[in-house]
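Hi R.,

Here's the chain you asked about this morning:
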Amino acid sequence: MLSAQSDLNEKIDWWFVYKLPKSCGPKHNPTTGREYLYFQSDQKTPLSLSKNKLGDGPSGALYHTLDQLFTSQTPNVGWIHYNDEYPDSIQPADFPNNIPAKFHRQSKNESANKNDHGKPVNHDFNGHCKGTLAFDLDTNSAFWLSHSTPRIPGLHLANEEASFYPQYADQYAQTFICISLADVSTAQQIAKVLTAQHQPQVFGCKLPNSVTEDSKFTDLWKLAQGSLPPTYSKKYVEKHGKKPPADLTFYANSGKSFRLLAKSGAWFDDFWIDLVGPTLEVDLRIETWRRLTKTALLPTKDGQEVIDDYGKQDFITTYKGRQYHHEFTELKDKDIIDEITNIDLQMLTDHQGNQLTEYHWSYTKDHAKWAISEETSERGEKENDHWEPTQLSWVCIADMNRMTSQEKRGGGAICFHEPLLWQGLNEIERISGKIT
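And the predicted structure, written out as tokens:
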């Protein structure tokens, strides 16, 4: 029976991992880039630093979950890997049926970067998404792993690239979420959205013989075939029309509900501003790679901050003697959602209860993609003489960054209510009005 496996190698409903970047923490003992914060279903304690490390031998939730696949000899267990960057160790047989195997060659017409020679060619219009959808037809069980680490899982490698986590991925912070799905039918529903919206770059699939185009597992089969999306652009959308996004409610093995919000490259609006926030009807705080694009700038004048140009609902908090602004404006005076620019773990502890006082980093060291809903009280709204938070505890773990370039690519977010995890993420984010 396939499931999300816990840090202790026990079957659980779901788990969340937030890997720390390399070289943060105390100067005398900086992080290696393998440490991670961990939270799982039915947990009664706050988000905390795990005693395990990624890639540190046969231990930890990620290892135990993927190990079910790497060691499986059961013919009715199948899986579909996808990643917007192929693993370097991929071989021609690992490409899906619809995608020709192509590798960079050492010639003037191919890759200008010599380091790319011999490596697989990625397709720029497939979805910006990474994960594994696995299922067992014999036990009617499945799990979905969604994450932000490029080029994993490695294939055809001894110990599957240092126990499933490669050394090259140590540099940046990353996020992972794994959910034990209610049944294979739920995996089918997710596969249908992935195929239609994400259009992921698929590789290294294994399908049982009964999963075929004309079987009851058609959606899993279609996902495994792979696809090459057209060159999405504003002109493409003007000609063919916008493709509506998806909003799928699905269930974990325990019955806990999750929402998958997803858009294709043919939607061509901002994923977070125009889809996730309005659909959930909340204000969001977002941590993603390289926000502050040319259409979302910190307000400045002659290199200095202009406080009057912050958002209409801007408010300021003070942390460790530094003031943090909590809303910026977009060009043409359009309000945008809050953008997290710093992470500080001071309010959290490790597995022994030691406070993580020196663990902090800038968004420039973070490749994670997550968001949480805001408390109404933080917007300065007061009802009946007391603060009245609404829509509290939404947590979203996503594929998409806050970048204009990703409007042409598919991706999504897994959103769910989890108050204790929400609290931990709310305590570590910092939003700065200062240019970093």
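DSSP finds seven helices and 28 strands in the chain.

Let me know if you need anything else.
M.
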